[in-house]
């Protein structure tokens, strides 16, 4: 597994990326332990993006709450 992946966000689409940046999240590492429900309330964050983030975290042994 590439540790550098934790320092960036996966490709999830512009609206979801903007939503995360607006909430202060700029890396996958920062999302570990964040409540999925909280992310779901961000404007631009949809089920597909949440699935991609969940899978990316899982590959590194991490998860959303």
From TrEMBL:
Listed Pfam families: HHH_5
Protein name, per record: DNA-binding protein
